[in-house]
TrEMBL record, chain B:
Bilayer-spanning residue ranges: 7-29, 60-83, 95-118, 130-153
Name this polypeptide is given: Epithelial membrane protein 1
Alphabetic keyword roster: Glycoprotein, Membrane, Transmembrane, Transmembrane helix
Entries under InterPro entries matching the protein: PMP-22/EMP/MP20-like, PMP22/EMP/MP20/Claudin, PMP22_EMP_MP20
Species whose genome carries this gene: Cynoglossus semilaevis (Tongue sole)
The UniProt record lists the keyword Nucleotidyltransferase: no
Length: 225, 158
């Protein structure tokens, strides 16, 4: 019995790789970025071994809806090699620090077709067993636009402001009608009637009452005349 | 009564035309592409794909978007104000507020269509203007006519 157990444990230990030998790679969460912006794709790893001089980082890119991935970045032997033929030509820059186990790259000037998944694979010889980590990137489409929103907001705001000021003026004029002399009443009546064809939808019940009472007063004065 | 019905019908039609012009992505059309204002439809392998607009002058595009949306808003506001003024305006008065709102809508859609004509697809050889563009100009004419009508029309004094 004991010998069977001993044999089994030896066999098992031999087959299962020591977990402390595996390298663990960390990348950023799913990113959303604006068109034309710069995106930093971060990648770092954890390994029980010291950082070797032969540490390598590679980034691959798989576009959304495609099954093929292409290699876009490789760092090895102290040299960073960026994509100079593919879709990221002249847009990648290595901003990591391999000595600190950071293999991040900077993707500049996000383009329309940059939706996809970026996968980082790091190797720290002799620690090479690990799973590459992916970091999806989503491009936020042209936001209906700061300019669009600003124009709409400002114009509507101005409209509301003008209507409010208009009603305010009418209300103030209506109040003053009661306390002035007859001749001035005549003048204000004419101004009032010209102003009255303006905004009819009442914004305030008190103003409606003021306008209604003004109308009644003016109609009664017209009748008198 | 007939005149009133006709005017309201024309106003509603104008609003519909403005909405179609603003929402439908068909200001510029080629054999395989129907584009503009908000996105781009491309036909490939008998399937239409919706993509984003590439390489457009951003500020002009957004100005066109904003003014097209504003013209819709003002036209709809003008309709409500007209109906309200029908009931509250004293007899013999003009529908000035409605007219002003409609005039602003006319101005906005004119600005949108003009900027579009001048700045976007100005030097392209393939393709032509689509139905949204045509509708934008037609609704400019209608809104202008309606604005003048509202500014001239007087409420019936029975």
């Amino acid at each position: 019995m004991l010998t069977v157990l001993a044999l089994a444990s030896v066999v098992l230990l031999g087959i299962v790789p020591d977990p402390s030998q595996a390298i663990v790679i960390y990348t950023g969460w799913e990113r959303h970025a604006l068109l034309g912006s710069d995106v930093r794709l971060s990648c770092s790893f954890f390994s029980w071994r010291w950082t070797s001089d032969d540490v390598t980082f590679s980034w691959t890119y798989r576009p959304d809806g495609s099954k093929d991935s292409i290699s876009i970045f490789h760092y090895t032997g102290g040299m960073a090699y960026v994509d100079n033929k593919g879709p990221f030509r002249d847009r990648l820059e290595f901003v990591g620090n391999p000595g600190r186990r950071d293999g991040s790259i900077l993707l500049k000037n996000l383009d329309f077709s940059d939706n996809g998944t970026f996968t980082c694979d790091a190797k720290n010889p002799p620690d090479i067993v690990g799973r590459p980590q992916s970091s999806p990137l989503r491009r936020v489409p042209i936001q209906a636009g700061v300019i669009t929103g600003a124009i709409i907001g400002v114009v509507l705001g101005l409209l509301v402001l003008i209507v409010v000021i208009y009603y305010l003026m009418r209300f103030l004029v209506a109040r003053r009608v009661f306390s002035l002399s007859v001749s001035k009443h005549g003048k204000k009546k004419k101004e009032g009637s010209q102003q009255r064809q303006g905004p009819a939808p009442p914004a305030d019940p008190s103003k409606v009452k003021a306008a209604a009472s003004e109308k009644k007063k003016q109609e009664s004065r017209k009748d008198k005349k | 009564m007939l005149v009133l019905g006709g005017i309201i019908l024309l106003h509603v039609t104008t609003i519909i035309l403005l909405l179609v012009a603003t929402i439908d992505n068909a200001w510029w059309i080629t054999d395989t592409v129907s584009t503009d204002l908000w996105g781009r439809w491309e036909l490939s392998n008998n399937l239409w794909h919706f993509t984003n607009l590439k390489n457009y002058p951003e500020d002009y595009l957004q100005a066109i978007q904003a003014t097209a949306v504003l013209s819709c808003i003002f036209a709809i506001l003008a309709l409500f104000v007209f109906v309200a003024q029908l009931f509250t305006l004293p007899k013999g008065q003009r529908f000035t507020f409605t007219g002003i709102l409609q005039l602003i809508a006319c101005l906005c859609i004119m600005i949108a269509a003009s900027i579009y004509t001048a700045q976007l697809h100005a030097s392209e050889t393939e393709g032509g203007y689509g139905h949204s563009y045509v509708l934008a100009w037609i609704s400019f004419v209608f809104t202008l006519f309606l604005a003048v009508t509202y500014l001239v029309l007087r409420k019936k004094s029975e």
